[in-house]
Amino acid sequence: MKPGEPLPDQIEAFCDLWTLDEERERAIRTMPVLMRDAGIEDEVAEFWKLWMNALRATNPRLLAYLSYMVERLIQMKIILKPTGSIYLHCDPNASHYIKVMMDAIFGHSNFRNEIIWRRTGSHNSRRTYGAIHDTLLFYSASDNYKFNIHKRAYSKEHVEKRYKIDPSGKSKQITGGNILTGAGVSGGESGETWRCFDPTAKNRHWAIPTFLNEQLPHEKTSAGVLERLEALYEMELIEIKDGAAWPHPVRYLKAEDGQPYQDIWAYQPYTDGTLFGTDEGIDEDVMWLGPTSPERLGYKTQKPAGLLNRIINVSSNTGDVVMDPFCGCATTLEAAHIEGRRWIGIDIAIHAIKRVTKVRLQDRLGLVEGQDFIIDGVPRTIEGAKDLWTRDKYHFQKWAVEEVDGFVTTKRTTDGGIDGRLYFAIPREKTLQSVAIEVKGGKNVNINAVRALRGVLDNDEALLAGLIIMDPLGQTKDRNFHRDMAQAGDLEIDGVKYSRMQMLTVDEILEGKRFHTPGVVGRGLSQPTLPGTLSP
Description:
Elements: H1 13-17, H2 22-37, H3 42-58, H4 60-79, E1 85-90, H5 95-106, E2 111-118, E3 133-140, E4 151-152, H6 156-162, E5 163-165, E6 171-173, E7 181-183, E8 204-206, H7 210-213, H8 225-234, E9 238-239, E10 248-249, E11 259-260, E12 264-265, H9 305-315, E13 321-324, H10 331-338, E14 342-347, H11 350-364, E15 374-376, H12 382-391, H13 393-403, E16 407-408, E17 420-424, E18 433-440, H14 447-459, E19 464-469, H15 475-486, E20 490-493, E21 496-499, E22 501-505, H16 506-510, E23 532-535
Parallel strand pairs: 2-12, 13-14, 18-19, 19-22
Antiparallel strand pairs: 1-3, 2-3, 4-11, 5-6, 7-8, 9-10, 14-23, 15-23, 16-17, 17-18, 20-21
Helix pairs in contact: 2-3, 2-4, 3-4, 4-5, 9-10, 12-13, 14-15
């Protein structure tokens, strides 16, 4: 394997999590109880049972995914404020299934939009249309949700067709635009004649558009409609051309003008590559990440900052809390912080949290842990590590591997086999080499663990092997362990010797000690799930 290529044993969350194992089956069976406890109608729970039985035979991996997501969506419903909203991103393979469950959990009346996000420019396929979009399902907690109208700047082409520069140097609208009347006759002042124009004669009445009312002096805003028409005429915001059948409002292009966001989101340059109001010639809300984008941190599912900025600005206000329960590389957290929101991020990948802390929060935002944000749920002491082992042995193994800068293997196991690999580069070599890592969290680790790992080293492509144990060994056992490990010999690179078999305790890892290897290759990818937590 060459540097820069995907690591072969790296954990893939989809393969790892979307398996219909005993844990998922238990979650599926208990789902109706969770639904009822969350106030969801009994009919939905009954529907869930029928649907899940059907999927168990036809698409078990989809069933595993749905059960996982529904568990978490129920919790999202519980904590979402009445003024809050939830956006769920998924691809077309599952979006219709997820929408049915979100209708049940959040209420069909709280469904607001299915947003189509064009995530890439093209995707060639020999037997299907190119799949270039994902779906964002937008629900609110109630009718009292926050929604701020934001606009996209008009294209230069649009401006050139509809506006011209007048003698004052401003862009004046020359086509379309509002008229000054509404349909129907009015018996009040709005039906009277103004400057020889009688709206009643045409079965209409005076109706001043909002954009004109907003430009009136404060003392005129509550005046009658005829007085306001006259004031606007004096301000040259209404024009009457010779022979015109009707007066017309005058509209000038302002920097804040544009088209409100619709439900298809994409970054698409116009024919000349420019947009009105942008100096660089691109949309300020870039909707996809190119392969060489400086935004990229190496996460397969990373979202562009423009996508998160739009959601945050539309559905929250300054000081509100934005939570991403699958925060991954934390684009949401950075966007929320920049936009003046408080934030909470959750991710199961401990290594992802470490990388986020370093790259996003410290280097890019200049934040200080303990002062500007805190991290919960990540073992910092031997007691915390033992508690994680007791609660979830698999995630303890995962934490231990990632804590020494390793990568968890794709095979999910609570014991036996290789738990992870640590990759390193050798000078003048074109391929990366690895350390096979085995984690033993139990109290009674015996010499067989060393001998089994030695067998892996003899039959595996790894050049080194590392054993992680929870507690320090007694004097005799420690001596026996190191004697057997020494029999594996050393690896010498550029005059430096590395023991082919090494051992670390959790205490040593928490103190910062690591396996002695040549330069370690940094972790590139991490898939999100749950429970390490970052918050300001």
